[in-house]
Design brief:
The chain has eleven helices and ten strands. The chain is of the alpha+beta class. Strands 1, 2, 3, 6, 7, 8, 9 and 10 form an eight-stranded mixed β-sheet that branches. A two-stranded antiparallel sheet has the order 4-5. The N and C termini lie far apart (57 Å).
């Protein structure tokens, strides 16, 4: 190759000239080999962001929504990368039509993210037989989901969390487990409505902050308790009812007459018996942006591209079963990471609130008029501390349930990173 004399003169300029000469030579080689459209690595444009096809107005954000993500089987992938089918659903008709297609048979794992959608909750509770009353295959998790917010006692939310034991359903060839927990969400106070609401709206506490313009303390946030519920269902390859046991089939159509008139009797042929994760969320503002997993934000975008991230992280995927396990493990771990980030945001605001309160006390230590404020803050911090212990217990119990579902030691590693944090 022949280089011009002007490029040779760059060598006399020292290290920077040599580096520029090498870059020009590298670019020219690429152009000669592959054409002028090929660029060197340092001039490559950024890839476009993930596209969302529907536009949400401020009103439609409060109408409820379901994100459905299907991770498809290996034979449907043409170039080695797993295909993902995602759809946003805003009404019960589209949700029902989703099961009229053959996409469920093509997926190794289906994810539902339900946000403020009462119509979707009722449909999914029946579709997965979550609200079953039978002692063998039922639990009260369906009733827990129907309570969209923590129960109130004396106008204050009663925070808690619960883990449901792993259940094996040999008639459906599945195992299932679930959790529910309350968490804290900070809502900023608008300047036009600084009047404090009444204590009967389920508010956890109030937080002060510093005004960005004047750096003076002001009433900044209302802290509300919100609820998240997660249901995990896994297929069982070998599952059969033990012979000789006097156990009645809860799905036997002949037993439909034994049900009470107002009770629902499940039809085994219409139930969804595949690998699935359902995340139920409700926000105080009724906006899909104010849940723990915000709509179209970091975690949802990650789940839509999850096979790509798994390949980037060098996660070996040998078959469809392994793919379903890795995707489920990542999604569940991401939910706990989102909870940790929510705790961090709350504690950052709480630290500023405590600093403001301490400054007021240090300025006038003999002022007893702040005794009520100090007591209320002490009581609120105690409830927050109890909630952190509840989250820790739920996480550990859920990790044990995951180990039982996977039936091997790898299940203990699903939430090991979250346990350490």
């Amino acid at each position: 190759m022949t280089l011009s004399s002007s490029r040779y003169s760059l060598i006399a300029d020292g290290h920077h000239g040599r580096q520029e000469l090498e870059d020009n030579w590298h670019t020219q080689n690429l152009h000669e080999a592959y054409g002028p459209k090929v660029r060197s690595w340092h001039t490559r444009p950024r890839s476009p962001g993930l596209k969302w096809h529907k536009h949400y107005s401020p009103e439609s954000l409060k109408e409820g929504r379901v994100l459905v993500v299907d991770y498809l089987r290996q034979e449907l992938s043409t170039q080695g990368t797993r295909k993902v089918a995602a759809q946003e659903i805003n009404n019960i008709g589209d949700l029902r039509r989703l099961y009229e297609t053959d996409r469920r048979q093509k997926s190794v794992l289906r994810l539902f993210h339900v946000q403020n959608a009462d119509w979707a909750e009722a449909f999914l509770l029946k579709k997965f037989n979550i609200n079953a009353r039978d002692d063998l295959v039922g639990s009260d998790f369906g009733r827990y989901v129907c309570y969209k917010h923590p129960l109130n006692r004396a106008g204050r939310p009663r925070l808690g969390g619960k883990t449901w034991e792993t259940q094996h359903d040999p008639w459906r060839s599945i195992s299932k487990t679930s959790i529910g927990l309350d968490y804290l969400k900070c809502y900023g106070v608008k300047e036009s409505s600084v009047k404090r609401p009444s204590d009967t709206d389920g508010k956890m506490m109030e937080l002060n902050c510093y005004d960005e313009a004047t750096e003076s303390p002001k009433y900044g946030y209302n802290v509300h308790a919100q609820r998240l519920s997660l249901y995990l269902q896994a297929e069982e390859k070998t599952s059969e009812v033990t012979a000789g046991l006097d156990i009645k089939n809860p799905y036997d159509k002949g037993r439909a007459g034994e049900q009470r008139f107002h009770e629902y009797f499940p039809d085994l042929e219409t139930l969804d018996n595949g690998n699935a994760i359902i995340i139920f969320e409700n926000s105080k503002s009724r906006s899909i942006r104010d849940t723990l997993i915000g709509a179209r934000e970091k975690w949802e975008s990650r789940w839509r591209r999850l096979p790509f991230y798994l390949a980037y992280e060098s996660q070996a995927v040998s078959n469809d079963d392994e793919m379903a396990r890795l995707c489920a493990r990542t999604i569940i771990s991401d939910v706990w990471k989102a909870l940790g980030e929510d705790w961090q945001r709350f504690l950052d605001k709480a630290n500023s609130h405590v600093e403001i309160l301490e400054s007021k006390i240090y300025e006038r230590p003999a002022d007893e008029s702040r005794a009520d404020e100090i007591w209320r803050n002490s009581s609120a911090w105690l409830r927050c501390e109890r909630l952190s212990y509840v989250h820790d217990n739920v996480l550990r119990e859920f990790a044990n349930n995951l180990r039982e579902i996977t039936e091997d030691q790898s299940g203990s590693d699903w939430l090991s990173g979250n346990l350490e944090e």
